[in-house]
Design brief:
Length: 422
Amino acid sequence: MISSVLTAAWYQRRLFAEGRVVIMNGSFKAVRVTDHVWWVGALDWNLREFHGYTTERGTTYNAFLVVGDAITLIDAVKAPFKDEMLARVASVCDPDDVRYIVSNHSEMDHSGCLPALVDQLKPEKVFASVNGVKALEAHFGAVDHLEAVKDGQELGLGGLHFSFYETRMLHWPDSMVTLLAEDKLLFSQDAFGMHLASGERFADEIDASILEQEARKYFANILMPFAGLVPRTIQRLGGLDFKIIAPDHGPIWREEPAHIVGRYAAWAAQRPTTKAVIVYDTMWGSTDMMAHALAEGVISGGAEAKLMPLREHSRSAVATEVLEAGALAIGSPTLNNQVFPTVADVMTYLLGLGPKNLIGVAFGSYGWSGNAVSLLNGQLDAMGIERIHDGLSVQYVPNRAALDDCRRLGVQLAEALKVRVR
Ligand code: FEO
């Protein structure tokens, strides 16, 4: 193992000269996590979109090297980042010495480089869950030396003890976590992660408000559809002996890992709050006027209003607010007999995420056919959101009386919210 920075840089240069790592960059160094574990992942500073999820702070693809008598790589990275990962591996050991790879999750941001990695490093074994083997083969065809591990199976690799636990549908059918007994470290794949590129590798080095914001956003946009499975998984993982959680995105939780586990339990419960999220778009300002009047009513009724015009807010920001809300008010003008496209987009996204325990209402302006509100009512019903009103439609531009109706509806929404959280 290479311990000094100077030796690591020399080693990287030698591997680069031999063509065994493509990137020769002294800044790509591994970061020590525990006695046996190094972070060897990649930083994607420029990522701004992750399958529909807006990632203002970029992301990390975490991979970990476990160094015992033999070397095991836990997870990999998105395909374009393979050589950055290998450069970090090369700051610890000869990449050719990686004997085992564990694939906790087969989504492309972690397995994208796996076929090329297996070709290059020729590990003795690549371990994945039973569903992980199927998923990797469905993505890439045959993968050399791929072997399934069962739920709860223990393996000794390089004199260290690993055990594997399926976390199906958190958030894919193949998902599993891996426990390294000697270091009491849980490799948790996507769970407990966040999209955050940073120079710091540990959560205790990062501002707590950023951690809260990005972890909540990750839960809302990735895990909300499976929130019902979270309590059982937390209960099961709670029976394992770990003191560090190392997810596949974002920082490592080495101090108080119970904090993020507790936040997951709270988010999974989706207890209603007195916050009404008012989401809308507008053509000529009329629906915007209605949204503002509705917000005034909510506030004057003693509840919290969060106004989210879709020209300013992404669908993933809306989902994040909805996770900790009690009501969704959705507003759209009628455009060609339909809901406005940006509103249709966010409603499709929310329908998939399936937020729970919300009440709701629809509103919007129209010219000669007011279909948008009735269409939105149907979408709220499909989402299981309890509507407190049949919705407000206003032709062309709302007059004073129409805006008073919006304010009264806001007060009604606030009263209903307060009753629900009492
Ligand atoms: Fe980070 Fe589900 O992939």
